[in-house]
């Protein structure tokens, strides 16, 4: 039996009073890699925000990593986020701390206490993104691509059941985008489930995968043409 990590049924997403996306029916299984595409303003970010609890789902049904999005309370959101890894376009690293301190901060904030466990976990995630030697550096000493790798490492800290990557290559040049994509592909091959919002169609051609499109308040699957 495949396990759905994410399910939306007749879900409608609102931003304040305005309806952004209506009647979404979508399911993601463990191990999937799915793109979410669409023009700026088409609802990709609202879709993502609903999944990590930033926007409330008020219509339809939805569940993410066993959390019911309709019945979830405010106090449940931190627990939902521990089971998710979220990667943003602008890295969101703490500028006054080294890479290791950035990662340790997240672990301690999510209940890790043992120093040895923390050190091992940080080494393990940095290894996964090929940044093992950069732990002592500060974010400003790293390139954009390196900062995004650290952001991906941070998303992996609590062994998330689903990684939400919101335009993770949006601030990167084409070559660096490919390097970051390679990291995401490797993580996916190791069993991590990834939903990635992007407007970089070159990546879709280079790394074809299941694709959802937001357009005219709808979300639908796009069938990619085989060359």
Automatic annotation (TrEMBL):
Protein known as: ATP-binding cassette domain-containing protein
PROSITE patterns (alphabetical): ABC_TRANSPORTER_1, ABC_TRANSPORTER_2
UniProt GO MF annotations: ATP binding
Gene3D superfamilies noted in UniProt: P-loop containing nucleotide triphosphate hydrolases (3.40.50.300)
PANTHER family, alphabetized: CELL DIVISION ATP-BINDING PROTEIN FTSE, IMPORT ATP-BINDING PROTEIN
ABC transporter domain residues: 6-225
Alphabetical UniProt keywords: ATP-binding, Nucleotide-binding
Superkingdom: Bacteria
InterPro entries found in the cross-reference section: AAA+_ATPase, ABC_transporter-like_ATP-bd, ABC_transporter-like_CS, ABC_transpr_LolD-like, P-loop_NTPase
């Amino acid at each position: 039996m495949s396990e759905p990590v994410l399910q939306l049924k007749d879900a409608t997403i609102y931003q304040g009073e305005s309806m952004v996306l209506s009647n979404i029916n979508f399911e993601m299984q463990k191990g999937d890699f799915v793109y979410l595409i669409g023009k700026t303003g088409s609802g990709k970010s609202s879709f993502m925000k609903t999944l990590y609890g930033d926007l409330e789902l008020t219509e339809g049904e939805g569940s993410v990593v066993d959390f019911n999005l309709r019945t979830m309370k405010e106090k449940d959101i931190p627990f939902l986020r521990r089971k998710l890894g979220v990667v943003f376009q602008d890295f969101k690293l703490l500028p006054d701390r080294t890479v290791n301190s950035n990662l340790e901060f997240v672990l301690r904030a999510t209940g890790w206490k043992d120093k040895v466990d923390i050190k091992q976990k940080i080494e393990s995630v940095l290894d996964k993104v090929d940044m093992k030697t950069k732990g002592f550096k500060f974010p400003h000493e790293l390139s954009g691509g390196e900062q995004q790798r650290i952001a991906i490492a941070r998303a992996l800290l609590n062994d998330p059941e689903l990684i939400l990557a919101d335009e993770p290559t949006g601030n990167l040049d084409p070559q660096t985008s490919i390097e970051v994509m390679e990291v995401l592909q490797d993580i996916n091959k190791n069993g991590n489930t990834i939903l990635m919002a992007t407007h970089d169609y070159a990546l879709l051609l280079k790394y074809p995968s299941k694709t959802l499109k937001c357009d005219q308040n709808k979300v639908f699957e796009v069938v990619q043409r085989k060359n």
